[in-house]
Amino acid sequence: MNANSSSGTGRAAWRAISSRILVAAVGGYALCWSLFLALCAWLPYEKVTLWYLTGQLAPLPFLFSLLAAFAARSAGRMAAWIFGLAGLFYLLGRLA
Amino acid sequence: MNALYATLAFLLIVAGMAALAIGMAQHHRQVFGRPPGVVQRAAWRGAGWLLLALALAPCWLGWGASMGSVLWVGLLAGGVLVVAGALAAGPKAG
Amino acid sequence: MNALGKAWLGLHAWGGMLFSWLLVPIFVAGSLAVFEPEIGHWMRPEIDVAPIAPSLAADLAERRLHEVGEAAPLWRVRLPTPREAGVGVSWGAQPRQLTEEVLAADGRPVPLRATHGGHFFTDFHAELMLGKSGRWIVGVIGIVMLAAIVSGIFIHHRILRDFFTFRPRANRRRAWLDAHNLIGVATLPFLLLITYSGVMILADTFMPAATQALYDGKPGGPRADAVKAFSRKASGEPAAMLPLREHLAAAERIFGPGKVTSLTVRLAGDRHALVQAHRTVDDRLGAVADHVTFDAVTGALLGQQLSWNPMTYAYRAQVGLHVAHFGGPVVRWVYFVSGLLGAAMMAAGTLVFLRKRRQRHDTGAVSRVLEGCGCASVAGILLACLAYLGSNRLLPAGLPSRDAWEVAAFFAAWVLALGHALWRGFPAWRGQLLLAGWLALLLPVLDLTTGGGDAWRLALDATAVVCGGLLLAATRFFRKESS
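Above: the input entities. Below: the C-alpha cells describing the complete assembly.
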C-alpha cells in the first residue's frame, strides 16, 4: 500500500487529494439531490412510494462519486462528469 | 427446535465449504498429498455446492424463505472461517 | 492487481485506516446494540426475570396507571417478552416526555438505578451521542466504508479465487493481510448489507431532497402517509374504559396469542379514548409493526393496519436487516459475531498498514499518532465498553445524574487509552488487549458480587468470558512486535 503519500510528495499531492475529496463530497451530494428530484418528477408513483424508493437508493450516488473521484486520472475531469450529470438530472427534474 | 435447525445448517455449510476447498488443487494437495484429477475436482466442487444448497433447507424450515435465506448467508461466513482455520492449523499449512 | 485496484489503493489504505478510528468503535457498539435489551437487563440488577402472563401484565399495568397516571392523557404499556422482563408502564402528556416505570410480578414498581442501559450502544453506534450532527458524521463514515469495501474487492481480488488462504505462520505482515482478506471475504455479504442499510437509514437525515420535493420539507410527512393513524378529538365527557386485558384479548384474536408487544391508550378517561395494540416484528424481515385501534370504552374496532405499501415494506425490510429484530437468538448471534468480525477485519487492515510503515523505518511523529489512534480505536474501545459496564455496578445506586456518570466512565476510559497509546506507541496494543481480556474475564465476578447473577445476566457474563479469552489469545500475535 502506498503508505508514504503523507511524506515527501509535497503540496501538489495534497492539493490533488483534497480536490478529489471535494469533488467526491460536493459532487456526491449534488448528484444524489438532483437524481432524487428527477425521479420524483418523472416516476408515475404516489408520493409515499417515491419517498421510500428514493430513500433506498441514497447511498449509491455518494458511493459512485467517491469511487469515481479516486479512479479518474484528474479530479477536474471527473468533476465535469459528475456535475454535468447532476445538472442534467436537475434540468430533467425542472422540466416536468 | 430452531437451535437444532441452525446447528444442522451450520454443519452442512462447514462440510460444503470443506468440500469446495478440497476441490482446489492447493488444498487437495494439503489434505491428500497430491493434486486432484479432473473428475475428483469436479466431484468435490459439486458436492460442496450441493451441501451448501442443502443447508438452505433447515434455514427455510426454521425461519421461512426470507429470514432463512438471510441466516444462510450469515452462516456462510462461519463456514469459510472454520475451514480456513482448520486448513491453517493442519499439517503442511502454507 | 488490476488498474482500478491500483487507482483505489490510496483511498482504500488511507481512507480505510483513518476512518477505522471511528468505524471500529461503531462496529463494536453496533454488535453490542444487537443485545440492547439483554444488556439493559444486566445493567438493572433490580429487575427479576419472573415470567408474567400477558393478561396479568395488562391488569398490573392498568392498576398502576390508574394510581399514578389518572391525569395523563397518554398511557403506554410494554408487555414482557422473552428478552425484556417486567411490565413497562409510562404516562404523560407528550409522547416524548413520558414518566417510566417497570413493574415486578407483584405489580409494584421496581426501584431502578438511573442508566442508559444497552441503549447507549445503539445511540453511540448510530450518532456518536451527538444527535443530528452525529448522524451526518456516521453517514459520511458509512459512505467511506462502502467505498473501502468495493475498492477492497478490486485490490484483494486474489482472495476471491481461493477463499481459504490463511497463513498465520508466515511473516507477521502476510498473516495480518491474510486475516484481513479472509475475514473480509467471509463477511462480505454481511458487510455490504449492514453498511448499505446503515447509510440508507442515516440518509433520512442528511439527504432531504425527496422530502423537500414531495412533502415541502416536512420530516414527518412520509411516515404519516405510510402508517395509518386512527385518532379523534376528546369529547370532554369522562367515561369508564373496558379493562385493558379485554383489549389485549381482542388484539390477540387478530395477531395471534403472544404476538402483542405493547398497548397505547390515548385520551385516557375520556369517552373518546382509544387503545392501540402493536404486533411484534420479531418474525418478519420488515421492521414494521402491524397495529389495531379499539374504542377504549366500547371495545369497537376502529381501524387496523395489517398490510403495507410494498415500497415502504421494502425500505423497512432494509431497516429490519440492519437492526436484526427478526429471527430470534440465532440471528442475533450471527449478527453479533459478524459485526465483531468486521471490526477485527478493519483492525487487521490497520495493522498491515502500520507494519508496512515500520518496515520502512518510518517512526516519526505521524507514525506515533497513527499507531496510537489505531490502538485506541480497537483495544481502547473495548476498555471503554468494559468501563461502562463496570461503572454501572460500581457507582452508588443513588448518585445524582448517575446515567451521565456511566457515559463519562466510557469516554474517560477511551481518552485514557488514547493517551496511553500515544505515550507508549505500538507496545500499547498488547498491553491494552491484555487488560481488556482480563477485565472481561472478571466481569462475572463483578456481576455476582453486585447483585446480578440470574440466568440472563449469566449469559452475558459467559459471553464476556469467551470474548476475554479470545482477546488474551490474540495478544500472542503482538508479542514479538512489542520489543
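Note for the figure: The mean pLDDT of chain A is 88.
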